[in-house]
Description:
Blueprint lengths: L6 E2 H4 L9 E5 L5 E2 L2 E2 L3 H10 L3 E6 L6 H11 L8 E3 H12 L4 E5 L2 H9 L3 E2 L8 E4 L7 H13 L4 E4 L5 E4 L3 E4 L1 H12 L5 E2 L5 H11 L6 E5 L2 H10 L3 E5 L6 H6 L8 E3 L8 H7 L1
Parallel strand pairs: 1-16, 2-5, 2-14, 5-6, 7-8, 7-9, 9-10, 10-13, 14-15, 15-16
Antiparallel strand pairs: 3-4, 11-12
The structure holds magnesium ion.
The site of magnesium ion has 8 residues, from loops.
Amino acid sequence: MTSRRARDSSTSGDRPDRLFAGYIFDLDGTLYLGDELLPGARQLIDALRSLDRKILFLSNNPTKSADDYALKLTRLGIPAAPAQVLNTVDTMTSWLLRHHPDATVFPIGEPPLKQALIQAGLKISEDPTEIDIVIASYDRTFEYRKLQIAFDAIRTYGRARLVTTNPDRFCPLPGGHGEPDAAAVIGAIEGCTGTRCEQNTGKPDPYMLEAALNRLQLTASECIMIGDRLMTDIRMAIDAGMHSALVLTGETTRELLRAAHPAEHPTWVLNRVDDVLPDAVRSARA
Ligand SMILES: [Mg+2]
């Protein structure tokens, strides 16, 4: 269903001609940029809620908890409960509980990730002789000491595996700025140990989508993924044979889209996020 070429709402007036049971939204660059809602975001969420559509807010960023995101969305004008938010703090915790509940883990990450792991009953350690899993994450306190612990656990003692919360190279900030994300930590550890990161629990990994669909209690064919990044938001949807909409309000420009392989194109390209509503619904609400 995603093999057809993406159609562009700015040139053809085309957009989805149907409603979906579930709407999975990326956050930064899709519904807001930094601390400001993007045009149409609040009206879109209001409309979908009045139409009884299920909504999930999805983020790869593990430096905040679902509670933090729910508070931020609510403060910006989109009331949200923590259960409507899924991020890589949740998915890493659930993945470990499912696949490695007895593992001793060393999270290179920020407090929300560590707190969630501890609350879930997982054992955390900085002792490389007992670490089974090193979690490379988005950590703005990353330092040589942490790299040494990961190095010893993986290479010196040959016992630990490397996984990550998310593969993003950088986190975009307002004004065209950004800061190094988890890929920087993965790269440092892979570089000195020669090992490869075995598992990602964020977009575009199918585990993230499985967790999202599980939360919504819907199937991929009943949902649409809306996001601003080709290599995470859109890639994940394409891999699952799911409809997707790329919004041009974040990372992806028309030039980047043109340079991307057609197999990486979304089902629809939208100038603004509320273009995801079918024309019939928009005119009925006008
Ligand atoms: Mg984004």
